């Protein structure tokens, strides 16, 4: 009799464990929490969260919305993009990780459950790109006195950086003296010897401010030749 009671106790404990370990079949899978967009800097790792409860025998998939590319189905990575992995620590977490994020990764990502009808949750990935120069251009420019000249400072970044010009030493550029700042291009009309000197182009972004971020600058030396 003791052996019977011992076996019965063992069976009850096993059934209790199985009941706790597996979700009820009569419950529909549901997403946990509210969807939230993700913002990361180019080169970092993005983690797109997708938490599901009562998954049962259903499957979870990740899809890139814009291209309709299947990235993963359940525990299997479908895409050939080696930077994409699944952060799957348990049956509830189906997080998508994108390493070394590129600007082309920006967009919508869908986490879906193959219920009928399908249940889905969309996350937008925003990728910030710090200001950088597209073309270093010429560090020294020569112009003949009385001619017009344009100093260029081509930059890129996201959001689009703000470009400002100033004379070396922080001296502001006055439009009344024939110089006009136009973003990436600084137009100087009727160059004179007073215009000769170093000009500093600075690119800044509203997302990259504070002591941790140094402005991107470039110096252009203007030489003026006599007539």
From TrEMBL:
One of its GO terms (cellular component) is plasma membrane. PROSITE patterns: IG_LIKE. It is found in: Cell membrane. It comes from the Eukaryota. The keyword Cell membrane applies. Residues 1-21 form the signal peptide. Its main location: membrane. Keywords: Cell membrane, Disulfide bond, Glycoprotein, Immunoglobulin domain, Membrane, Repeat, Signal. Residues 29-123, 131-217 form the Ig-like domain. Pfam families: I-set, Ig_3. This is Limbic system-associated membrane protein.
